[in-house]
Amino acid sequence: MIMEYLKQIQRLNTMLLAEMPEYQPQAQDFPQDTASQRRLLRSLMNVRPPMPLKREFLAIQDNLLSAEREAKGVVEGAALPPVNGCPQIAVWKGDITRLRVDAIVDADNAALLGCFCPCHGCVDNAIHSAAGLQLRDECHQIMQAQGHPEPTGRAKLTKGYNLPARYILHTVGPIVQSHVTRQAREGLASCYRSCLELAAAHGLESVAFCCISTGEFHFPNQEAAEIAVKAVKDFLWWETSIKKVIFNVFKDIDETIYHRILRADSIAETGP
Predict the structure, then answer these.
(1) How many domains does the chain fold into?
(2) What is the dihedral of CA 39, 42, 47, 51, to 10 degrees?
(3) CA atoms 215, 162, 204, 140: torsion sign
(4) Which of 75, 138, 239, 249 is the most buried (most CB within 10 A)?
(5) Are residues 144 and 32 in the same domain?
(6) At a CB cut-off of 8 Å and minimum separation 6, what does 181 contact?
(7) What is the pLDDT of residues 134-166, one digit of tens each?
């Protein structure tokens, strides 16, 4: 089984290097063990520009990624317990690419093509790496049709491909330079509203948000969470197809912040 897994990885690497021979010298520095070759594969997938995908590549890639998805374990979004006092909201700390929901949210940059930095730790890289190269291809088609970079605070919808999630909502959050401006606050709130509006327009019922703009874009965690919770709760106040919203966090501090904000809101609404 392990040998078959390694053979699939090596075949994909060979096909990608045939498309991008300029990476052959760097690829030769990777050892032949499974973990190193898998890291090479992710790196090559990350740097590959949008271009036609061969059927053989897609068949092997999809088989590999679906097996990895099952090995990681799928987390059922519907089974996540709601926060006390917020029956439509859950908080979950973990890998967003494991969540089975109608849509997960990807925090993109304005190009909307995914992260090109090999094996980078951002959520954009994780989502594209787990979904497969079809995702970059679909994003490229969307951006070609649009003809300009994606503005802050909007949303686009693509398929989820090899993810447990059916769809991916793509949004570009504001970048914070030295301090948080009114424009940045409004832009972040717009990211949450736009994603929920687009999800509802397609009849989706469950959405999982990453912590938009708090990583590489430097939005302070506490204020970003406050904006996120308010935007989501304001949206859920109206009749909508959205039945559940999950705040997906990766750090302990973010998990603590979201629970504290939601608990305080619940007390304020219902009394101690």
Answers:
(1) 2
(2) 140
(3) positive
(4) 249
(5) no
(6) none
(7) 999 999 999 999 999 999 999 999 999 999 999
